[in-house]
């Protein structure tokens, strides 16, 4: 079992992706199936960038045990006004700075939804908590 925690700094495009890189390295060291690593890293990168570009900062936790990998992203910020709308491909409120750094296609949340076995988002006007879970035993994909 491994647990890690990473700080995520808003609008810092130099450090953006640091948490996801460490998660990738950790999963490789643990010899996790490459297909699962790909899904987890795609999800963690999208969620991490969302904290960088849409919040005022936050942190991520990474947990792995023999059953599952759990990624949690907590941020302070404006929150997601309408989660259902935000999940739609192409919906974005990203600003021009995010755009000039290559983000803001409105694809992040839908990519996470597709990659994770379970995606839970709680958000209000003070911030957001996103949890993505990946099952490591058999086919337990939950659709909701
Ligand atoms: N942590 C967050 N805090 C506040 N709003 C968020 C957060 N994450 C997502 N959102 C809202 O949901 C929208 C859709 O997010 P999504 O990740 O799908 O696209 P994007 O970040 O705008 O672009 P892309 O991920 O393709 O670079 C965002 O534009 C933003 O309005
Ligand atoms: Mg995004």
Automatic annotation (TrEMBL):
Which InterPro entries does the protein's record reference?
HATPase_C_sf, HATPase_dom
Put simply, this protein is called Histidine kinase/HSP90-like ATPase domain-containing protein
Provide an example Pfam family for this protein: HATPase_c
Q: Which residues form the Histidine kinase/HSP90-like ATPase domain?
A: 50-134
**Alphabetical list of SUPFAM superfamilies matching this protein:** ATPase domain of HSP90 chaperone/DNA topoisomerase II/histidine kinase
Q: Membrane-crossing residues?
A: none
């Amino acid at each position: 079992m491994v647990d890690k925690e990473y700080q995520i700094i808003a609008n810092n495009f130099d450090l953006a992706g640091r948490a996801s890189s460490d998660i990738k390295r950790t999963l490789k060291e643990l010899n996790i199936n490459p297909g699962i690593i790909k899904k987890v890293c795609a999800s963690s990168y999208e969620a991490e960038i969302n904290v960088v570009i849409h919040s005022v900062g936050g942190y991520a936790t990474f947990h792995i045990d023999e059953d599952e990998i759990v990624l949690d992203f907590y941020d302070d910020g404006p929150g997601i006004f309408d989660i259902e709308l935000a999940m739609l491909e192409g919906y974005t409120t990203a600003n021009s700075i995010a755009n000039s750094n290559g983000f803001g296609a409105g694809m992040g949340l839908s990519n996470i939804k597709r990659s994770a076995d379970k995606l839970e988002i709680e958000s209000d006007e003070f911030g957001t908590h996103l949890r993505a879970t990946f099952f490591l035993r058999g086919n337990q994909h939950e659709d909701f």
